[in-house]
Amino acid sequence: MTTVALAATLGLGLAACGGAGGAQESVTWRLAETHPGDYPTTKADEWFAEELKKRSDGRITVDVYPDAQLGEERDVLEQMQMGSVELNRTNANLVGEFVPSWKAFGVPYAFDSEEHFWNYLQGDGGKAKLEELSEMGAEGLAYYDSGARSLYTTGKPVEKPEDLAGRNIRVQPGSITAEVVEKLGGSATTMDFGEVYSSLETGVIDGAENNLPSYVSTRHYEVAQNLTLNEHQRVPEVLMIAQSAMDQLSEEDQKLVREVARESTEVQRELWRQEVADSRKTLEDAGVTITEVDDKQAFKDAVSDLQERYAGQYGDFMDAVEAAKKQ
Ligand code: BDP
C-alpha cells in the first residue's frame, strides 16, 4: 500500500468511529476510482454520488477519490475486504484475485459483440456473478462498460500472434490475461496500472493491452504507438460496496443505493460511447498506427486450447454467456 493510501485508510478509520452497526442517521463514504475526473467511469461515480445525496435527502454522502488517490486497484480491493473503503469502481479482471470465479471475465473471445456482452451482464448470469462478491465481503451494485481490450506495443506493429514472440506485455494483477498473452506467443508481466507508462518508456515492457479510452487517458499511446484491434477480451467495470457499509443503512436506503447504482449504468454507457469515438479521433490525430484485425481467427485459434480448459473451470459462466447469445 502506498503512503497516500495508508494515510487515507487511517483517515477513514477515524471518520467512521462511532458507527457501531444498525441504521445510521447519515453516512459519509469514500468511493475509490483509478481513472481521472474526466473519464466515463469517474463521471458515472460522480453522478451516482450526487443523485444518491439528493434522493436520500442528504443522508448518504459519497466522496469520489479519482486518480488512484486511495491506492492502486489491488490495494483498494484489499481495503474493501477489510471494510476500510466503502465503495469502489474497479475492473472485473482485478477481482479474480479475491473472488476466483471472477477470473472467468478474462476468458478470451467469450462475447461476440457489445450486445451479447450486455445481454449477459443484464441477464441472470450477470446478476448471479454480482452476488459472488459476497465472498469478499462486498455487494456488486452495477456494471459499467469498458469496451474491448486490445494490444498496443512499442517497436513494430503486431499484425498476427507470431509478432508477439519475444515481446513482454503488461497485464492486470489477478487476471488470467497472462495465460492469454502467453498462448498468443508473447510473455506477460503483471503490473499495477500506474506503473505502465514509465515501464513502456524505459523498455521494461514492450506493450500492454486495454480499451481505447484507457490507452488515451493514460497517454500510453505517446510511448507505445502501435495499436492492434484484436479485441481479445470484453471485461466489465464494476461498482461495489463493502457489506459493512451497506449494513449501516436502513432497508429503504439500501434499496435506494441499489436503484441509483443501476441507473448510473445507463449514464456511464452513454458517456462511454462518446469517449470511444473521441479516443479514436485522438489516436488518429496523433498518428498512432492502428492495425485493424478484421479476421480475428488467427488470434482465436492461438488461444483455442485455453477455451477448452476454461469451459471446464468456468462452466457456469460459459453456459450463461452462451445462453445470452440467443436473447
Ligand atoms: C482499464 C480499467 C481499469 C483497469 C485498467 C488496467 O478501467 O480499472 O484496471 O484498465 O489495465 O480499462 O489496469
Automatic annotation (TrEMBL):
Recorded GO molecular functions are: carbohydrate binding
Alphabetically ordered keywords of this record: Receptor, Signal
Q: Which GO terms describe its biological process?
A: transmembrane transport
Record-linked InterPro entries: DctP_fam (IPR018389), TRAP_DctP (IPR004682), TRAP_DctP_sf (IPR038404)
User: Would you say which domain of life the source belongs to?
Assistant: Bacteria
- Indicate the secretion signal residues: none
UniProt GO cellular component terms? outer membrane-bounded periplasmic space
The answer to whether keyword Lipoprotein applies is: no
Please identify the protein, giving its name as recorded: Tripartite ATP-independent transporter DctP family solute receptor
Organism of this sequence: Prauserella isguenensis
